[in-house]
Amino acid sequence: MRHERGPARPEPAERQPPVERHAPAVAAAPAPPPQAPGTWRFTAPATESSVPRLRHTVRDLLGRQDTPVPGEAVDNALLILSELVTNAVRHAALLSPYIGVEITLGGGWLKVAVEDSHPYRPKALAVDPQGEETSGRGLLLVKAVTHEAGGVCDVEQTGAGGKVIWAALPLAAGA
């Protein structure tokens, strides 16, 4: 992430308070306050290391909310996030060196969306009856988890020609 810094020295008009010679020890900064429902956006490189980083970031974000997010919804959202980011890394990185993640919490719903710049619109593959395939079923898993939770998911084209794959999960059980 990119952060901008201000000037290293105070402007001449600014006066700094005198520094005590024996200042008391500084206490550790308090944890950030809980957040109200809203939307959070992240950008990450389309690399394998982004999968666990984004998962941990979103887990921590959801844990700081005023609106309680049930454990099952958090677990489902993290699984969905991991699958969608992994798909973007594996299948879209050539045309999309960065991916976008958007988390929306509000109105009784938790929405996870992953955006990339690749134009291909994927489809969930069918279940392999012989069980011989060891990969390629991520979107099928996303669909199944989402629908079992009573949610919805879809793929949408972006104005720039890429796509957003999203899943929305209800926060209330049996919704």
TrEMBL record:
The keyword Nucleotide-binding appears for this protein: yes
A Pfam family hit: HATPase_c_2
Region: Disordered, residue numbers: 1-51
Record's compositionally biased regions (Basic and acidic residues): 1-23
SUPFAM superfamilies listed in its UniProt record: ATPase domain of HSP90 chaperone/DNA topoisomerase II/histidine kinase
Keyword terms: ATP-binding, Kinase, Nucleotide-binding, Serine/threonine-protein kinase, Transferase
Superkingdom field: Bacteria
Record-annotated Histidine kinase/HSP90-like ATPase domain positions: 45-166
Gene Ontology MF terms in the entry: ATP binding; protein serine/threonine kinase activity
CDD domains: HATPase_RsbW-like
Protein name (database record): ATP-binding protein
